[in-house]
Amino acid sequence: MNDQHRVVSSESEELILVDRDDNEIGFAAKADAHNGAGILHRAFSLFLFNDAGELLLQQRARSKRLWGGYWSNSCCSHPRRGETLEVATTRRLLDELNCQAELEYVYRFCYAAKFGDLGSENEFCHVFLGRPSDEIQPNESEIAGVRYVSASALAEEFEQQPDRFTPWFKQEWRELNRNYAGQLARYCTP
User: Fold this and answer.
1) What is the model's pTM?
2) How far, in Å, are 85, 127, 169 from residue 21 at the CA level?
3) Which residues have C-beta within 8 Å of that of residue 24, sequence separation ≥ 6?
4) Which structural domains are found in the chain, ordered by start?
5) pLDDT tens digits, residue range 86-108?
6) Catalytic residue, candidates 96, 121, 123, 172
7) Do 147 and 92 meet the contact criterion of CB atoms below 8 Å apart?
8) Active site residue 104
9) Which one of the listed residues 54, 75, 76, 188 is annotated catalytic?
10) Which of the 8 DSSP states describes residue 104?
11) Which of 22, 61, 130, 190 has the most CB atoms lying inside 10 A of its own CB?
12) H/E element holding 157?
């Protein structure tokens, strides 16, 4: 389905709750998992690069409860109840960007970030790198805009306007550059 306006997520979808070792311990509605300080749940972040080595950024739809209108990595979301990471990442690439990609797992980590009084992210996040195998066609119910950026231009933007970006994206990008530079270099040019 290639409808660039379809609704692909809801506050009632069930997310997978985990402990700090990523062991499944239950389920909660997305809304509940993001209320207050949040409940630790499984998530993923995808970093997609074009053939020129530039990173695809997405501007989150302004209608999003948390960090609406902020720039972030190519795609990020949650596996739903009963989904593996492989199934969830494939589904979400089609949902958000109407594309497929072969993904390479890089690392996982826990983070929490509060967004004023609207809620929090509290995630055990799995990070992947890849290249889209077809043209990007953003779903406008999820994404306000997309653009490709070089690593050097992104570093400059982080320095000059850090508040335009989601906290998990900034943290993941720093970690990729600091501890996974070899894997990153296969996709990204400086």
Assistant:
1) 0.93
2) 16, 15, 21
3) 16, 17, 18, 42
4) 14-185 (3.90.79.10)
5) 999 999 999 999 999 999 999 99
6) 123
7) no
8) no
9) 76
10) E
11) 130
12) helix 151-160
